[in-house]
UniProtKB/TrEMBL annotation:
It is found in: Nucleus. Residues 182-237 form the DDE Tnp4 domain. One of its GO terms (cellular component) is nucleus. Keywords: Hydrolase, Membrane, Metal-binding, Nuclease, Nucleus, Transmembrane, Transmembrane helix. PANTHER family: OS08G0106900 PROTEIN (PTHR22930:SF259), PTHR22930. The chain crosses the membrane at residues 14-31. This is DDE Tnp4 domain-containing protein. It comes from the Eukaryota.
């Protein structure tokens, strides 16, 4: 056997070994792929019907068992909760889906905003993924923002019956007063570069929120978003100067905190509580 034939023989043997190795690698790759596919198929989830029963049981325990449980967990009584669900459904702001009812959507939202729960904890309690909880949280939030224009408004400028039926103590001193204004600080989570702007008299970042209520304790105006370091008078001035801000009929007084009225340039008349006495401040 000459040299050329020997080289050709070595080449054929090398080629066979290479093809054999490639074949073995291909078989191993295919077997691993099939194993992963079978492993993925072997994951068994609970029947959807059973999960729906668990969720319904949890909602019943949360809402219908005890009034104080519903009030503590969702911050409202069961009757108010169901009335709000019906109103959102009638206005077509929220709709029932195949998997999530309006009641469950609203309950998830209220547990997060009322109890400061995380999406993962709410999802664990209701057998939902964090993505599902986050998605319906945003849906309910948008629906309530639209509904706020209808609910948060001044309903009447007449003197309330609680004043007219309480002579000597409230009437005629608060005649024409339609509500109360107050500023409060609500804890806020902000990026680290904005923390100083939101830190005021509290040891943690807050929003300075202005709220107005009538004598039935119904909100008539809310302004949120101001930094905790902002003065109450600046928040009130901003509320009065906005095109769609706080509107007070001429000559109608409001009861307010004394800090709100300081340094305000053009507000209407307010009844401010100063040193325990109510006095009419004119600007």
């Amino acid at each position: 056997m000459d040299n050329s034939q020997q080289q050709y023989l070595y080449y054929c043997m090398w080629k066979q070994r290479t093809l054999l190795v490639l074949f073995v690698m291909l078989v191993l790759w295919w077997s691993k792929k099939k194993e992963r596919k079978n492993r993925a198929k072997s994951v068994k989830y609970g029947p959807l019907v059973k999960r729906d029963i668990w969720r319904s049981t949890e909602l019943i325990r949360l809402i219908d068992t005890l009034e104080r449980t519903c009030l503590h967990q969702l911050r409202m009584y069961p009757a108010v909760f169901y009335k709000l669900c019906a109103h959102l459904r009638d206005k077509n702001l929220l709709v029932d889906t195949i998997h999530v009812s309006v009641e469950e959507q609203l309950a998830m939202f209220l547990k997060i905003v009322g109890q400061y729960h995380t999406h993962s904890s709410v999802g664990f309690a209701l057998w939902r993924s964090k993505e599902t909880v986050s998605r319906y949280f945003n849906i309910v939030l948008c629906a309530l923002v639209k509904l706020a224009r209808e609910i948060i408004c001044t309903r009447s400028t007449d003197t309330h019956a609680k004043i007219t039926t309480n002579p000597n103590r409230l009437y005629p001193y608060f005649e024409g007063c339609i509500g109360a204004l107050y500023g409060t600080h609500i804890r806020e989570r902000v990026p680290s570069k904005y923390v100083d702007r939101f830190r005021g008299r509290k040891p943690y970042p807050t929003q300075n929120v202005l709220a107005a209520v009538d004598f039935d304790l119904r909100f008539t105006y809310v302004l949120a978003g101001w930094e905790g370091s902002a003065h109450d008078s600046a928040v009130l001035h901003d509320a009065l100067s906005r095109p769609n801000g706080l509107k007070i009929p001429e000559g109608v007084p409001w009861s307010e905190s004394s800090n709100l009225s300081k340094r305000v340039v053009q507000p209407p008349s307010f009844l401010t509580k100063d040193n325990g006495r109510a006095s009419l401040c004119s600007y």
